[in-house]
Amino acid sequence: MAWKNLLSWLPWKRPSSHVIVGGGITGLIHSLSLTEAGHTVTVLEKEDHSTTDPRTIVFTQTDLPTLDGIGMEGVVLRESVPFTKPVLDIGTRGIPELFRAPALAGSRIMPRENLHRLLERTAYYQGIDVRNGHHVTAIKNTPGGLRLTIDGRPNITASRVVGADSTVQLETAR
């Protein structure tokens, strides 16, 4: 008991375990950020495979420093190409001048599928447990933490759950 009192003044807390529901771009970026902060992270993705999203993603000059916080800026710079002109001149369709292509000067563009692949690879090397084909069906608040039911079977307990699945909102038990 005296040992606990002696250590109680220390300013750090034991890293908590996080489960991120949704293994898309947002979920993987959150997982890398939490891992960088010293937390243990598990990512659960309902689909059995990685994304096959055919769209592209544009990174503006303000986005790139944010990616540096999770160690991805250099990778994105290598894998993306400069965004030189708009596919469609959106200024001619009544959209404000703010959204014309010059506002995107210095931006980079890449397929979302490529970004997702890079994030998955980085997560793997960071020791993040990414599990595809795991559908979270319920979350219950227990004395030991939040208990996640996966495919109808109680499976994982975590300190925190982050919903990043873009289709279903998860509400933790109160």
Can you put this structure into words, describing what you see?
The protein is built from 5 helices and 10 strands, in the order αβαββααββαβββββ. It is an alpha/beta fold and 174 residues long. The chain has a single domain (18-163), classed as 3-Layer(bba) Sandwich (FAD/NAD(P)-binding domain). Strands 6-2-1-10 form a 4-stranded parallel sheet, covered by helices on one side. A hairpin with a 2-residue loop joins β7 (136-142) and β8 (145-150). It starts with a helix and ends in an 11-residue tail after the last strand. Residues 95-99 have low confidence and may be disordered. Residues 19-165 form the FAD-binding domain.
Summarize the structure.
This protein has 174 residues and is an alpha/beta fold.
Kindly list the characteristics that best describe this protein.
alpha/beta, four-stranded parallel beta sheet, FAD-bd, FAD binding, FAD/NAD(P)-binding domain, 10 strands, three-stranded antiparallel beta sheet, single chain, elongated, 28% strand, monooxygenase activity, 174 residues
